[in-house]
UniProtKB/TrEMBL annotation, chains A, B:
Record family assignment: Belongs to the homoserine dehydrogenase family.
Pathway assigned in UniProt: Amino-acid biosynthesis; L-methionine biosynthesis via de novo pathway; L-homoserine from L-aspartate: step 3/3; Amino-acid biosynthesis; L-threonine biosynthesis; L-threonine from L-aspartate: step 3/5
Catalyses which reaction(s): L-homoserine + NAD(+) = L-aspartate 4-semialdehyde + NADH + H(+); L-homoserine + NADP(+) = L-aspartate 4-semialdehyde + NADPH + H(+)
EC number: 1.1.1.3
Function: Catalyzes the conversion of L-aspartate-beta-semialdehyde (L-Asa) to L-homoserine (L-Hse), the third step in the biosynthesis of threonine and methionine from aspartate.
ACT domain span: 349-422
Protein name: Homoserine dehydrogenase
Keywords (A to Z) from UniProt: Amino-acid biosynthesis, Methionine biosynthesis, NADP, Oxidoreductase, Sodium, Threonine biosynthesis
PANTHER family: HOMOSERINE DEHYDROGENASE (PTHR43331:SF1)
């Protein structure tokens, strides 16, 4: 009895899934314990699907996902609807589901997981974050006996490519974006990537898994993109022995009562393993109580890597199905809430263009003190009218740091706030 | 009904497992679906075990592993016997097994896996390679639909620490080893680490999993340690933009008919992600056909990280047991054989002290050509009596490269072969 798969979507990833299932059929059968077979492929327009057996194609996705002979539904359409309705219908009909849909999981993962739990079927989604990197299942399974304290991820290849170019070639943002577009690393409309929307969806998924809380959605994620990152920021980071990365950060609060989830540019020490993640690669760094520091690195996008992750999930859910079991998620919720960005403890790097006059530093220090932000170090560059004061704060609530910067902007001794960026710190 | 665990061994890892099971009991119960409980602990001497409930202790390990109320046996004794007999007895009595025993798995994994398959129980061993890094299950499960071509691993923290010191401080091997010993990174008798025995056992386990061949044992692994690595080698690597790492390398042959498994020092480009693995950290780099390049990074040793990996496995096998299923391994063997080191395709870096006389290079090139080894690049350093010729070969069978070096050693124009090391190459 073959395991029958319904495929929703036949674009770059979908067609690659079909290709791999075909190419690896013997090996897959051996690893699952029974052959796997594509039973149908739902597409929007039949005449557009290429390279697949035409007799498998249908435009009636709803009929396909509820067809009695289908065991597993693989969704690679993306977007919220009709993906959500189709997945819920599939689950309702007792099918296990594999999806790569980060937007849907970030927005409404709770509903999907609850439906899967109730129906006793699997909902796997390894491909939704960091492409081919086996990350979600290790977080869920291998660290099941551990306690995650912080997750820091480079989860968007486009922005990493742009920042890497800016760092290695001293190029500006616009120039680097254009290069990324020319090479196919960035889309014509790069908003989802450069404004951090893509990373924010992934951050929500990571936070949910790492902290076992179903409450986090994309809307809970504080989000800042990289469009404001300047060549001066990158140079300032270099002077401190840092690189600039766009990170998705999920962190447990000190009192263990809530989590903070955010996406923004970060200055990161060059010695940190995340700092050496180049080009469009992704990597996720996990700090766990027992396991210590872990990092998972690999290709974050692309049809073949994503299809590889989908295939890994297909094998797992097929095996579970054959064994008559399923892995429920979200049944034991820690209920940890998400706290505001203002309450998140961060550190700031601030570069100020000031007049080199006696009393400037004391004025600046007074403004920091007013908001109870203590200064970790100060460095002065240049002299006279070109003087720049570079300060790094100790960790403090983000709201206090933000108000400090507002006050600095308004002060007449500060000609310009040349660069503001958060600095991520690591204990040894 | 609690899931009952028998623990074999109560040293650094074992006592930490007891501690974590105790500390995380609620969370573990939630994740498994039933409470987990230590039913007994086998030790060699009862008066030596500390910090655990004395009523759990026994010196009769064989009676413990076959006790009817035990579900899962966790073996953290290490070594071949009595571990093997105890694990086989446990499997024979229908228990699932979690082990951290790399030596045993490398020597006789085939017997253990066959017994587990036959009995329909789990045999999990995440902790045996690279400590807390979730690596073996991702290789087995997430890449189940993929095809691994090469695995390169820094799997021994002691040697990585020593090589990192030699690189960063220009120190010699002996001095760096002594520092590692003083800091507890190396044992008083460092043979198992510095001669590559530890890494070779892990290489065998990795090769078996990556290529789905049960045939590989530790004895099949070509092994060279780092005792011969000199400050001159490190300097020579630096001059080429490389660092020296002790790597475990498992590679599929070009014709896909066999695999090569080896442990030896390697010159690696500084841009490669493995090059930035510092101190005693471990990392395993995987090249797969669909997933592309992946890296798994983390702490490779230590009681708590290892216990974390054991705990992750315990949760998995307990869940499987509750669901009445198990994951068989080795049932579908590719049967790939291991080829000799001589047939393995490698590249050499060779530094020769030569007299700076006309004709030296042509003589040296002739020796390379005699063994059908082509030269990728040559660089001459110094002049007169201090001249050094540094050559890097194109890939060739290791036996041919080795014979080339032998001939160079015997030639009267070569005063000394100052450095010989393999260079690992990466396609883009």
């Amino acid at each position: 009895m073959a395991m029958k798969v319904a495929l929703l979507g036949c674009g770059v990833v979908g067609s690659q899934v079909v290709h791999l299932v075909d190419e690896q059929s013997e090996e897959l059968a051996a690893r699952i314990g029974t052959p796997i077979e594509i039973g149908g492929i739902a597409v929007r327009r039949i005449d557009r699907a290429r390279g697949v057996d035409p007799s498998l194609l249908t435009t009636d996705a709803m009929a396909l996902v509820t067809r009695p002979d289908i065991d597993v539904v693989v969704e690679v359409i993306g977007g919220i609807e009709p993906a959500r309705s189709l997945i819920l219908a599939a689950i309702g009909a007792g099918k296990s589901v594999v999806t790569a849909n980060k937007a849907l999981l970030a927005e409404d993962g709770q509903t999907l997981h609850a439906a899967a739990r109730e129906a006793g079927v699997d909902l796997y989604y390894e491909a939704s974050v960091a492409g081919a990197i086996p990350l979600l299942r290790p977080l869920r399974d291998s660290l099941a006996g551990d306690r995650v304290n912080r997750v820091l991820g480079i989860v968007n290849g486009t922005t990493n490519y742009i920042l890497d170019r800016m760092d290695s070639q001293g190029a500006g943002f616009t120039e680097s974006l254009e290069e990324a577009q020319a090479l196919g690393y960035a889309e014509a409309d790069p908003t989802a990537d450069v404004e951090g929307f893509d990373a924010a969806a992934k951050a929500a998924i990571l936070a949910r898994l790492a902290f076992h809380t179903q409450r986090v959605t994309a809307a809970d994620v504080h989000r800042e993109g990289i469009t404001g990152v300047t060549a001066a920021d990158i140079a300032s980071a270099k002077a401190m022995g840092c690189v600039v990365k766009l990170l998705a950060i999920c962190q447990r609060s000190e009192d263990d009562k809530s989590v903070g989830v955010r996406v923004h540019p970060v200055m990161l020490p060059v010695e940190h393993p995340l700092a050496s993640v180049k080009e469009a690669y992704n990597a996720v760094f996990v700090e766990a109580a027992s396991a210590g520091r872990l990092m998972f690195y690999g290709a974050g996008a692309g049809g073949t890597p994503t299809a590889s992750a989908v295939l890994g999930d297909m094998v797992a859910v097929a095996r579970n199905r054959l064994a008559g079991t399923s892995v429920a998620e979200g049944g034991h919720d820690t209920g940890l809430a998400v706290h505001d960005m203002g309450e998140t403890i961060t550190s700031y790097h601030v570069a100020l263009d000031v007049a080199d006059r006696p009393g400037v530093l004391s004025k600046v220090a007074e403004i920091f003190a007013r908001h109870q932000v203590s200064i970790k170090n100060v460095r002065q560059e240049g002299r006279g009218e070109d003087a720049q004061l570079v300060l790094v704060s100790h960790p403090a609530p983000d709201a206090a740091l933000s108000r400090t910067v507002d006050d600095l902007r308004g002060h007449d001794m500060v000609r310009e706030v040349a660069s503001v960026m958060r600095v991520e710190t690591f204990s040894d």
